[in-house]
Amino acid sequence: MNCRRFWALAMQRSQFKAVIEMSKRYLTEGFHNRPYVESSDDLMKLLSQEMRDLDQEVFKVILLNGQNHILNILEVAKGSLTAARVYPREVVKIALRYSAAALVFVHNHPSGVAKPSEDDKRITRDLVLACLPIGMKVHDHIIIGDNDKFSFADAGLIDQYAKELDARKRS
Question: Do 22 and 71 sit in the same domain of this protein?
């Protein structure tokens, strides 16, 4: 091997190692700087501007790691003025792909009224019942209206649905 080629390969190798090291640092620092979710108010601040003025219902899932840092926020359904079709199987599939430890669901009501419909309650219940048996916690489902929100967790409904699953297991 000639001397030039040797030094060229050595330089490529050291540059490659430097790129790997910089990537590791970037990913580690990025991980620690991710938004942290502590309450429904945190999520309201994060998403209300984006979602409250939409003219159709949009349903998003916020994927969290074990420390409640956001892994990703994904739109899983877009619907009409009054509904967005959400499939628990698809939501679980996405959450497993990201290795999420916990989830928060958020959707808007284009009407501006953040009151949950019976369909909202049903899908939230179905999602909680689909996630808990596989070790995935549902922290909340938030409905965003014009200037307010409804939190299923704050209303005690997430816990109610989880207790329903526990009661089924015992019977």
Answer: no
Handedness of CA 156, 127, 30, 66 (dihedral sign): positive
Residue 14's domain comprises 1-33
pTM of the predicted protein model = 0.76
Number of compact structural domains in the chain: 2
Question: Model confidence over 56-112: pLDDT tens digits?
Answer: 999 999 999 999 899 999 999 987 777 788 999 999 999 999 999 999 999 999 999
**How many Å apart are CA 19 and CA 17, to the nearest integer?**
5
